[in-house]
Amino acid sequence: MRVAAFHAGLSAERRAAAYLIAKGYRILARRFRTPYGEIDIVARRRQLLAFVEVKARRSLDDAAYAVTRKQQQRIINAAQAWLMAHPEHETFEFRFDAMLIAPRRLPRHLLGAFDAST
User: Fold this and answer.
1) Measured between alpha carbons, how far is 84 from 65 in angstroms, rounded to an integer?
2) Which of 45, 71, 73, 82 to pair with 34, CA 20 to 30 A apart?
3) What is the pLDDT along the chain (118 residues), one digit of tens a residue?
4) Do the beta carbons of residue 99 and residue 90 sit within 8 Å?
5) What CATH number does the domain containing 51 carry?
6) Residues with Cβ within 8 Å of residue 90, at least 6 apart in sequence
7) Burial class (CB in 10 A: 0-12, 13-18, 19+), 105
8) Count of domains in the chain?
9) What are the φ and ψ backbone dihedral angles of 106, each rounded to 5 degrees?
10) Which GO terms describe its molecular function?
11) pTM above 0.85, yes or no
12) What's the gap between Cα 73 and its chain centre?
């Protein structure tokens, strides 16, 4: 079960990355791991960085509810670590997005799905 979930997650991340590229983003990192958490995708478009959490579920609604407050905090902490490791991006604006993936549906990109102040 865990192996199947892992592969499903990788497939969802590939779909999300392809969707972002089609929207004009450049993928800077995938599966960026820190002691604080993991970021599925770090993407850039112009002077904007998007830290993207990818969620794959049976429906887009189920995927939307899968990003918990605890996960959000881990992603925020990991993003801070990413920014410290990449000072060349310190002047960029950034936001936290979610990419929702469901079978036989186009991905749904939620811009600014959460922020660091919540």
Assistant:
1) 30
2) 45
3) 564 555 455 688 999 999 999 999 999 999 999 998 999 999 999 999 999 999 999 888 888 888 889 999 999 999 999 999 999 998 999 999 999 999 988 999 999 999 887 5
4) no
5) 3.40.1350.10
6) 83
7) exposed
8) 1
9) -70, 145
10) nucleic acid binding
11) yes
12) 13
H-helix or E-strand spanning residue 20: helix 2-22
The residue among 94, 117, 116, 105 whose CA lies nearest residue 55 is: 105
Do residues 49 and 43 make contact, with C-beta atoms less than 8 angstroms apart?
yes
**Beta-sheet strands, E only, within the chain:** 26-34, 37-45, 48-56, 93-101, 108-114
Structural domain boundaries, residue 12 = 2-114
Asked if 96 contacts 49 with a C-beta cutoff of 8 angstroms, the reply is no
Report helix, strand or coil for 9: helix
Whose tokens are 């887009």? That residue is: 60
